[in-house]
What we know:
Elements: E1 7-14, H1 24-35, E2 41-48, H2 52-66, E3 70-76, E4 83-86, E5 88-90, E6 116-118, H3 123-129, E7 139-142, H4 149-161, E8 165-170, H5 179-196
Parallel strand pairs: 1-2, 1-3, 3-8, 4-7
Antiparallel strand pairs: 4-8, 5-6
Helix pairs in contact: 1-5, 2-4, 3-5
Amino acid sequence: MERNSNRTVVVTGFGPFGEHTTNASWVAVQELQKLGLGDEVDLYVYEIPVEYQKVLDLIPSLWKRHNPQLFIHVGVSGMATTVTLEKCGHNQGYKGLDNRCYCPDNHCCVQGGPDCLESIIDMDIVCNKITDPQLDVVISVSKDAGRYLCDFTYYTSLHLSHGKSAFIHVPPLGKPYTAEQLGRALQTIIGAMLGVLERPNAKMNCQLGH
């Protein structure tokens, strides 16, 4: 039997919360699933509830199940007007309540962990590589994923994967992009990320204030 040499990529979006009764991140991930990442990439997608404890349970479980080359998380930001590549996740400062009106007592992801962890993927390089004239979406780079479930998930994933994770923020649907536009943007971005994955130049332990 021929061994499957495909790369494995896991992509998550979030379920509803607050005013986001339809979460654009999960809609965008479902659009990505329709498009796929090509014949050489096995794509798995999952919806994550907006709950701290679910994140702490699910992220390690999915890593163990798939051992992916890259684990990508997509979240919605009500303030975003671009598709935003997040450089790093933060360990401290989690005070917002989740869907179960809970937040961690210590307000952090990993007790004793570094304040900031960066992806091994250089997001500036990814952003600069995306020159597809058919992609009618503006892409930007950020150092602040927001200190809520998005940031919490990103840090948790970076800590487990030794940096082999990425986080992408999308705007709410129609503000200004359609689900189809967001799905194509994710497909293009993830393709670019896989292209630079062999260039692990990012610092894993970032002590700078973001």
